[in-house]
From TrEMBL:
Protein name: Endonuclease/exonuclease/phosphatase family protein
Record InterPro entries: Endo/exonu/phosph_ase_sf, Endo/exonuclease/phosphatase, GPI-anchor_lipid_remodeler
GO cellular component, one term: membrane
GO molecular function per UniProt: endonuclease activity
Domain Endonuclease/exonuclease/phosphatase as annotated: residue spans: 74-293
Record key words, sorted: Endonuclease, Hydrolase, Nuclease
Claim: Hydrolase is one of the keywords in the record: yes
Biological process (GO), any one: GPI anchor biosynthetic process
Length: 312
């Protein structure tokens, strides 16, 4: 027993300074002003995959724009398509995404190399799920490929801006800021993955809110992995004050979800029609092992968010 206590005391002496350092080490850091990188249209993946039926796709666009069907949005941290069983399998992640039937989906921790290589996960997932367009927002180069965020969409992505929200020596982070056109209506979609430590999340949320207009003139969606679960979190409180209540459920770890890390904001928040972490019977079993997070889904009618935006 005495040996165990000594070991515990030793670990505490090592870990506590590390926790303090990484929580406060960047407190004096100022996030530098960085102009967004505006992607060339050729950098947005627009290939018409063989699984597309152009006429069906056009009918879906029109039905969504007329409000005959809801817009379905999802956010999913795919953990480089590596599951809880430590097996990397983009195919089963694609199966989970297909089962969500999402029109727009944000991905975090995805590899996005070009071509047909194993590290071209974004391209593979877009192809296997029948998404019309895809855009990568990689934040770092890992030994197995470009790594970061991605956005998949059934609707045309007209323009994309990439924002670097990295702070000091913490892990690089970014925001995909895209305009998606649905039947003549432009929806601004922001995808991000915030930092692990409170000090960097606070700075990153400050920058995210600076990017957004006080009164958006068009519908807005903000989503991703916030890495934050505390109800009194200052970063989450500021996001709620501007964007309203988010869609969130316990999504991590996928096998036994405890922490609500992943969120979708669609202001005004009362326009949300449905929220769920993926719970359907067979896909749910797959979702619990395909990644270390569960996906979050929200549905909303375009008329509801367009009218809510106009009245703000």
């Amino acid at each position: 027993m005495r040996t165990i206590k000594l070991i515990a005391a030793g670990l505490s002496m090592v870990l506590l300074p590390l926790i303090v350092f990484y929580s406060l080490g960047g407190i004096q850091e100022r996030m530098p002003e960085r102009a967004p990188v505006v992607l060339d249209p050729q950098e947005i993946c627009t290939e018409r995959w063989t699984c597309h039926d152009p006429s069906a796709l056009a009918a879906l666009w029109e039905a969504t724009a007329r409000g005959e069907r809801p817009l379905r949005i999802a956010s999913y941290n795919v953990h480089k398509c590596t599951g809880m069983d430590f097996r990397r399998d983009p195919g089963r992640v694609a199966e989970v995404i297909r089962s969500l039937d999402a029109d727009i989906i944000s991905l975090q921790e995805v590899l996005s190399d070009p071509g047909e290589t194993a590290s071209a996960q974004m391209r593979t997932l877009a192809k296997k799920t029948g998404m019309y367009m895809a855009v990568a927002g990689h934040t770092k180069h890992k030994k197995d490929g470009r790594y970061g965020n991605a956005l998949l969409s059934r609707f045309p992505i007209s323009s994309v801006r990439l924002h670097d929200i990295s702070l000091g020596s913490f892990e690089p982070r970014g925001i995909i800021d895209a305009d998606i056109v649905v039947g003549g209506l432009t929806i601004r979609v922001l995808v991000t993955h915030l930092g692990l430590w409170p000090v960097e999340r606070n700075r990153q949320v400050d920058r995210l809110l600076e990017i957004l207009p006080e009164r958006p003139g068009s519908p807005l969606i903000v989503m991703g992995d916030t890495n934050d679960w505390l109800p009194g979190s200052p970063a989450l409180q500021r996001l709620r004050a501007r964007l309203g209540e988010p869609v969130t459920m316990r999504t991590f770890p996928a096998l036994f979800p405890v922490l609500p890390l992943d969120r979708i904001w669609i202001p005004p928040s009362e326009s949300l029609r449905e929220t769920l972490a993926h719970q359907a019977s067979l896909p749910s079993r797959l979702a619990r092992i395909a990644s270390d997070h569960l996906p979050v889904v929200a549905t909303v009618y375009l008329k509801a968010i367009a009218q809510g935006t106009a009245s703000r």
